[in-house]
Amino acid sequence: xxxxxxxxxxxxxxxxxxxxxxxxxxxxxxxxxxxxxxxxxxxxxxxxxxxxxxxxxxxxxxxxxxxxxxxxxxxxxxxxxxxxxxxxxxxxxxxxxxxxxxxxxxxxxxxxxxxxxxxxxxxxxxxxxxxxxxxxxxxxxxxxxxxxxxxxxxxxxxxxxxxxxxxxxxxxxxxxxxxxxxxxxxxxxxxxxxxxxxxxxx
Length: 202
What we know:
The chain has eleven helices and two strands, in the order ββααααααααααα. The protein is mostly helical and about 200 residues long. It has one domain: Endonuclease III, domain 1 (Orthogonal Bundle), CATH 1.10.340.30. It has a two-stranded antiparallel sheet. Helix 2 packs antiparallel against helix 7 (about 100-120), helix 2 (about 40-50) packs across helix 10 (about 170-175) and helix 9 packs across helix 10 (about 170-175).
């Protein structure tokens, strides 16, 4: 049932969406919600979540390697140096989502991330500072939030630092994907493992 647990052929209970396609099952089991740290990794996830806005995540997931090739492996300094020729190249690249505003935001955000680093700060540390020490345990899809006070506050702070395309919903999706919050449903086989991994991040 949509919004509930779904039992796979392997006998494991997953969040309903994680059992809907093989691509989603792999992403759900091995990546979604598991803690992600490091500026480059967080920059990649933030960029992909921004490109997902208005689209299915499955579209982004299936184009992920194309995005990595197009954006220099999400090397922050490389993308920060992109100019007009790179924008034209990206707009012609069918391996990614060709959206001018999102492409521009990816470049702006690389520059903002680099500026933080040059100032002795870290995008990863900033994002993780908005983790909740009181994890929710959603019982179903209706219990999942689209935004939270933390995602709204983080979105505001990112915008203050010059980031673009970082609304509270996009930011919350990033927080979910990167383990800042654990939104695996109660009873999902991944949930307890993710919580153990999150506890180890300090």
